[in-house]
Amino acid sequence: NCVGAGSPKRIKEMGMSLIDINDKYDHMVLDYLKKYPETKYIYISSGIVHEMDSSLYRHNKVLTEKRHRDLADFNITDIRVYSFFSKFLKDDEGFFMSELIRCIKQKQTLKVIPLNIVRDYIAPLDLANLILQVPSGNRVMEAYSKKPVQLGEILDYFSTEHGLIWETM
Q: Dihedral, CA atoms, 57, 6, 136, 127, nearest 10 degrees?
């Protein structure tokens, strides 16, 4: 189940309908599982569940995961994705990396807040491989990369390799 907004921009645009859409499709799959309990349900969740965030998006992910854990007899795996990066990422989606790519393409200056930000990016192929290895049972899995990356490392790499121009705000 990868139903949802997909980006910070879309989350903001969808508002409350995000919960309705998530619940509609989640319950549709859960009803199917009741008929075919050998089916494996893999739900793409988010690492935001660990954060102290009062957003509707976090609330929705927490409630969905709780609902899944309450159904312990079903093969439901919630995979928490923290950050992802793909060549298909649009440059207007509201992600840090999409803004960075937009600035490179348009030769604009990326403005960053000098925070100690660490991201753990996962690529589509890595996520697909993780999904293929999900065993039966009811669980949560964390989708981690081999090594998280700090903001400075990201900026240094894209400056050196792709001509990114950036400044602190």
A: -130
